[in-house]
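Reply to dn_fold:

You asked what the input looked like. This is it:
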Amino acid sequence: MSTLPEQLREMESHHSIFESALRRLPLPVCTVFRSPDQPVPVRFAASDKILRTPDNAIVARSFPLSIEASGNAVLVPTPSDAPPVKGKRVAVLFSGGPAAGGHNVVAGIRRILGDGNTLLGVTPGPKGLIKGAFFEITDDAIASYLNTGGFDFLGTDRTKIKTDAQFRKVKENCVEYGIDAIIIIGGDDSNTNAAILAEYLFKDAKPDGSGVQVIGVPKTIDGDLQVKGFLPISFGFDTATKIYSEMVGNILQDTRSSLKYWHFIKLMGRSASHVTLEVALQTKPAVALVSEEVAEKKQSLSSIVDQIARAVVARARKAMNHGVVLVPEGLIEFIPEIHYLIVELNDVLAHNEKEFSRLHDSARLIFIQNKLSSENARLLASLPDYIVNQLLTDRDSHGNLQVSLIPTEQLLIDMVARYVREIDAGIPFAAQSHFFGYEGRCGAPTRFDAAYTYNLGLTAASLVLDGRTGYMASVTNLTDGGHPIAIPLTGLLQIERRQGQDEFVIRKALVEMNSPAMRYFASRRGDWADDDHFSSPGPRQMWGPAARQQPITVALNSNSDSLEFTIGEAGTEDRGQRTEDRALTAFAS
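and this is what came back:
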């Protein structure tokens, strides 16, 4: 019998009771993969679903090889008696910020490749692809990371492969290490890079004149990588929103208990409000802002503040001097007057980068104001210093403003306080600010994300063995057993202005005003503002009463009749209980 100190030492290095139990949980698979214990690769065939964007003609000129091969057709599984493919050497990497479930993608890839093929890990991220940092991934190595959070098995970075020298180096490394295929696990920018890399490596990438395949896997907690009807959500979204919802639910319970604070909570979601909408549906706060609605209604900053202030006053007159306001991380970019300012700022900074970087901080504002239109110069001067300083900070490697650093929640608090005093000086208004971001990215995946990512890995590896390139793996029909498909990356590409020039991008999927999820939210938020109707959804669950719940927005937007997802269990009776029993049995063992 070991002593307690010995037991505690055994729980170090990702071996807590919880983590050890997670590794033993079963992972369901889509029925087309046949067996959860021994999934087999599937073959694909072109469907009659063709994807195009408004910039399709321009894309076709820049990606002729990829489009000639795919026809921009969505691929679906097809029966096949072809013998197993062997001898492939496949590299996999994470790109961009972490998201829960990434390790399960790698596990799914390794499982499908089997003993006849080799899987190589790339560390860290695209930078490792350029440097040639590869190692072989064994079954035992990835098994120890199964169902765990984070990207620590491979590491990640935000390098964008864009120069001729970088592309040449990737090609040289493919030759040196005998790489036949690359699987890139990332968001919209990373999958855009995958499309470009797929075209570059399509042929003549190896001495025999053949090419190197490139497959993408959709990852981002922001949920802004979606394709209606073909990609319901990116992985990591469900875990992150359930972590945020637990914390928001706790704060909502605290407001009802202490009866004295308004909490302004900024939530991750740089360019879309999917996270905020999902958390709002989970928790029912007094106020939840949706950036896309602000843009659609052309709401000014002052009108947003007025909206919040009136909710504060109305609740105060009912003796409720408390509440929660959810603020999307990227809200400031959607406010029309500030959006136009940021667009011009991006262009000015891109064309004056060297001169601007040499200036002392005190001289930068005047320099920029002299380059802006008079209207935008006045607006910039009217904003608090803590906002201006962040608007002038360096952009990220993809040319994006780092909105996570902009304290939009504090700006709203300061302005709401002033508005409330103007409306009724006798109303108390005490506020706290929060930013929930990194807290949600690396948690152990929810059951949904654990199953979803594993099946994405099975799909990505199957595409490699089927000889495909330039596709992104997806799983649809989440409430009917799950259905793996492949989306042509070139069918998603559009032109967007980045860092002063036009670039190919996969455009971010924004919250649609007429979506079922948004319509339901709009129908209920008035009641949530009037009184406390909040819910505390509790912690994310891999087993237990809420373990089988998919994101509410996904269920609503997919016209599902239930929140329950059923990957691997289509057409079975009492399927939830049987799977639950298996999970609890594994946990007990």
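The chain has 24 helices and 15 strands.
Hope that clears it up.
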